[in-house]
Amino acid sequence: MSALVQETKAEAGAPMLQADGVSIQFGGLKALTDFNLTVRQGDLLGLIGPNGAGKSTAFNVLTGVYQPTQGEVRVAGQRVNGWLPHQINHLGLARTFQNIRLFRALTALDNVKVACRAQGALHPEGVGLGTKVKGAFVNYRDWWRALLLTPRFQHEERELTQQAEHLLEVMGLSHRRDEEARNLPYGEQRRLEIARALGTQPKVLLLDEPAAGMNTREKADLMVLIRKLRDDFKLGVLVIEHDMKLVMGICEFITVLDHGETIARGAPAQVRSDRKVIEAYLGDSYLESHGGAA
Amino acid sequence: METPAIPVPEARSAIPASLRGILPVLVALPVLALFQWLMSDAPFASYLLSVVGVNIILAVSLNIVNGMTGQFSIGHAGFMAVGAYIAGVMSLNLKDVALSFLPVAASDQVFFVASLLVGGLAAALCGFLVGLPSLRLRGDYLAIVTLGFGEIIRVVVQNTDAFGRALGLSGIPQTSTPAMVYFWVFLTVLVARRITGSSHGRSLWAIREDEVAAEAMGVDTTGYKVRAFVISSFFAGIAGGLFAHFVPIINPGSFTFVKSMEIVVMVVLGGLGSTTGAIVAATFLTLLPEGLRSLFSVLGAEGSLAQRVDQIRMPVYGLLLVVLMLARPQGLFGTKELWDVLPRWIPRKRKGLA
Ligand SMILES: Nc1ncnc2c1ncn2[C@@H]1O[C@H](COP(=O)(O)OP(=O)(O)OP(=O)(O)O)[C@@H](O)[C@H]1O
Ligand SMILES: [Mg+2]
Fold first, then answer.
1. Which of A39, B117, B205, B348 has a beta carbon 3.0–4.6 Å from A236's, enabling a disulfide?
2. Could you count the other beta carbons within 10 Å of the beta carbon of residue B174?
3. Is A98 within the bounds of a domain?
4. Domain ends where: A140, A174, A192?
5. Mean pLDDT taken over chain A
């Protein structure tokens, strides 16, 4: 499997996100086995596989929601095993969720503003008592500014609003600025999740089925937008998507999972003709179409 | 992308930025002075309004945890007790001390405020010690732990001579004034509102809405929950300290689970997350039994009828809570503030937090 790691790309920047032999088990279930991945700035990678293959689990391990039972995750060169999700996020890894997880009662603007932190409120990263104490100190100073409503606080607040408005505009959501997230139509909710993730100023963006529930037209538009985001925001992007055609269309490199195992990796054309991939997908759709009748 | 190159617009408000922080205080002080003057010859009204004020502080501060942050603390009376006993004991011991360069009344107030702050900080410390382990865990741990905390405080007080055991502490100098109580009401509300309008408040709301997503968006959820809890406990302690300085005696009976539930009912009735809702509900639920009590005594009924008000209070709260859950589960105002639910023709602020 480690031979497959040799996927060095021509325009090799420093890897922003790296998974090295990552495995995770839930009880007896091996949800992810020996998962390897490298994301650099400018990458647009795909992660595909049938239902229950372990794609979302991979996202959860990378972002610190779950701890890997084996292997190592590195973000911006730092080993982040054992870190909390918010600390990993501060290093520049942001994500969206498959089952939309917006702050439903907050307005679209406030959703994004939660993610945009004032520069002054940035905490030192890492585990250990030293950084914790430092972080707490920075945070308390920040609380006092907010409680005393200092001019600096007011300025930062306007700055945040402006950043968030900019991101809403980028995602075509300006007209929803003051609407509660729960009242947005489905497609716009998905876009708002991306705007929110961008608010954390990530270097790598993980999108979990960003086009789910959209019609063909919306899907195509979204894929164009994702490519644009990668260029404008200088991101590395990793997309989970069920629609093979879509992924094949925009991703330069694809990893295929099945039952937690990486069954193929490579360029779209290469992956498409892979026997194991065809089997996994055919088996899946076969079961889907015939399962009800049986 | 980095911050867009557009310059940040200046505030469109007519009030200079440097003044906005202090402005509410400048407005509040003369109002409080006037209020104090009005109340100077009305002991019963002073007492009643002080009770209302203390309950507003309790409800508004609990709302920071149970409303804004979406946690479930049911031991607020415990933190109130800490503040009441610490401040009370301190005042008792400093009773005969006075600052020579101040008039006696002013000196008393200085010591009173000092005791309040010490009581508040003690409660905040308890909040930290209780909150840190339990807020790391999800779900109902906080409820269980805060419930236990309230009981522990009660047992400690009942077995400590310095706290007067079950008999209670009497003789605490009655230095509290309605103006002082409402100064703290004002501060509590101001703090709650300013938290709401800042990135800290947004982080708390985000935790309430979806903890996993908040964490993924870089919010230190445990840290924020603990901070919210500490702030909330601090004001509960202040409320206790104020209370101890206008009632003739404090005893463990004033800070039981029943008191905690009363505060929870106020917050739920007002609408979890609504500061003005908490104020309205606290006022209503405090004045209602008092009103009934005075009504009964005015009607000339024997004391027993007035006493029954106390006995039926808890069942009535329970009933109220059940009716509320059925008819309007989000409380009177939901997460909105008073000005959001006013009739249309009254100008309102733009939607969103703050
Ligand atoms: N917290 C958990 N505890 C136990 N099992 C889990 C947990 N999370 C995921 N699993 C299991 O791990 C496997 C992989 O799930 P995962 O959600 O990663 O699949 P997926 O590839 O994202 O599928 P889909 O396309 O349906 O989203 C599934 O069998 C799932 O039931
Ligand atoms: Mg999934």
1. A39
2. 14
3. no
4. A192
5. 85
Domain positions in chain B are 43-341
Domain that includes residue A230, residue range: 1-92+202-294
Fold classification of B43-341 is ABC transporter involved in vitamin B12 uptake, BtuC (1.10.3470)
Closest ligand 1 atom to the C-alpha of A55? 21
Tell me whether A110 touches chain B (CB under 8 Å).
yes
Interface of A with B in 222-251 (CB under 8 A): 232-234
Is-contact B215 B222, C-beta < 8 A? Answer: no
Residues A113 and A169 in one domain: yes
Which amino acid is it at B133? Answer: P
**For chain A, what is the largest distance between any 2 Cα atoms, rounded to a whole number of angstroms?**
69
- Encode pLDDT of B187-199 as tens digits: 999 999 999 989 8
A261: domain CATH number? 3.40.50.300
Rounded distance from Cα A30 to ligand 1 centre (Å): 10
User: How many domains does chain A divide into?
Assistant: 2
The per-residue pLDDT of chain B, averaged, comes to 86
pTM for the predicted model, two decimal places: 0.89
